[in-house]
Amino acid sequence: MINHLATAAASCSTGTWSQRFKCGWNQPVSPAVSHAGYDFGHSLLPALAALAVVILIARSVKRRKKARAAAPAGAAARR
To answer: What is the pLDDT of residues 18-29, one digit of tens each?
Structure first.
């Protein structure tokens, strides 16, 4: 792994534009960047899941209210 990064770093300044661009993907990131990405992902996913549950509940309540409003006048008395 270390040899691969060393040879990639040496040849990153030569070649075509796409070869130099691909060379950047082989470079390691700093620990601060990887830690920030980990924290962001692990705090965002539970929030998105909770938001999805809230949206689903709101939609079902809205549909239930709409269905009751659209029911005939005598339908409530038959229950």
So the answer is: 777 777 666 677
